Prior knowledge:
Layout: E1 2-8, E2 17-20, E3 34-35, E4 38-39, E5 41-45, H1 52-59, H2 61-66, E6 87-95, E7 98-106, E8 112-119, E9 122-128, E10 133-135, H3 149-156, H4 170-177, H5 185-194, E11 196-200, H6 205-219, H7 223-235, E12 242-246, E13 252-256, E14 262-263, H8 264-267, H9 270-281, E15 291-295, H10 303-316, E16 321-325, E17 342-345, E18 351-353, H11 368-373
Parallel strand pairs: 5-16, 5-17, 11-15, 15-16
Antiparallel strand pairs: 1-2, 1-6, 3-4, 6-7, 7-8, 8-9, 9-10, 12-13, 13-14, 17-18
Amino acid sequence: MLKRFELRNFKNFKDDIVVDFSKTGGYKYNTDCITNDMIGKMLIYGRNATGKTNLGKAIMDINHEIISSFSLYDDYIVNADISDGKIYYSYCFVFDTDEVIYNYFKNGSGKLISEKFLINNKKIFECNFENMKFDFKNLKQIAAQTVNSDIYTNAYLFDNDEQTSSELPFLKWLLGNAVFPKESVMIKLRSYIESMSYLTVGGLEGIVLRRRYKRYYDILEDRNELVNFEKFLNEMGVECSLTLEKLPDGQNELYFKHKKPIPFLENASSGTIALMNLYFRFVQKFRLMSFIYLDEFDAFYHYEMADNLVKYFKKNFENTQIIMTTHNTNLMTNRLMRPDCIFILSRWGSLTALCDATERELREGHNLEKMYISGEFEKYE
């Protein structure tokens, strides 16, 4: 699991911002927000332009660097007010009894400058691509001593004898070229990073759906999938029955089931379409996912539907770490969450749990929403 993430000099985050999943408050209620003594379900509030989207993209950077080649970034990723132009990322993971730390620097264009990898506070390797200095002497600690690191330095770091550094992280190369034991922490690390996902719900529901709905309908040809999707909508408060019909041209079409079937896509509300998009992109796969960042996850939902969705995540995906950003203060309640799992992202780039944003000892009976609206946590906004 991800234990801690630290970021500096990225977009609007000039100073250090830390997301600490291990800092729990010991509350005895809503324990389904906690997984293996870590925060498993987190809500983040923040005024517009505080960087909620930027934070999610930054956390996902390790997935881009190590697994995929798809970047969530635009051309401007470094904070505009700094002079050295270096962005710092640091990840701390916990797998059983092992703690894994991976940190690295990038320049303003997103190119890797250095990386450092530790297990249980012991350095395994370190690379400085600016100075062309590399330390691979402890690879034996992860049973990778037979890996020939010279292949990496010769093939990936130099071009025609010129010292031009590559953008290929050594960790990515190592995970792709070494053979690790089945229970190795390296296998667990790769699996976790590979299973990280990000979704901005707001603004995507129509565009994405029109490109993908035919594929969704093909999935629903499986009767069990159709029943599961219908059940999901019902649990979210959308009372409906669904039927899938084959058109004369061989294409599938989804309908709301009535005496006269009603085409689903043309008649569903924006909230229902957003749910459909969320379901097929993520809910089907949540059990296989380690971490999900849902930005504006309830942008199109009535507050009761958003409430139902949080409950659904807690009930069905207890082993998946999920961060949800929202402006919906109805979710800021001890009935659903708890003060150590609800955070405020400030305008200057700090992230503070509600339990740390007041001198009061927050208890289950406190009305968190009322406290928030009345300005109890205002200095942390």
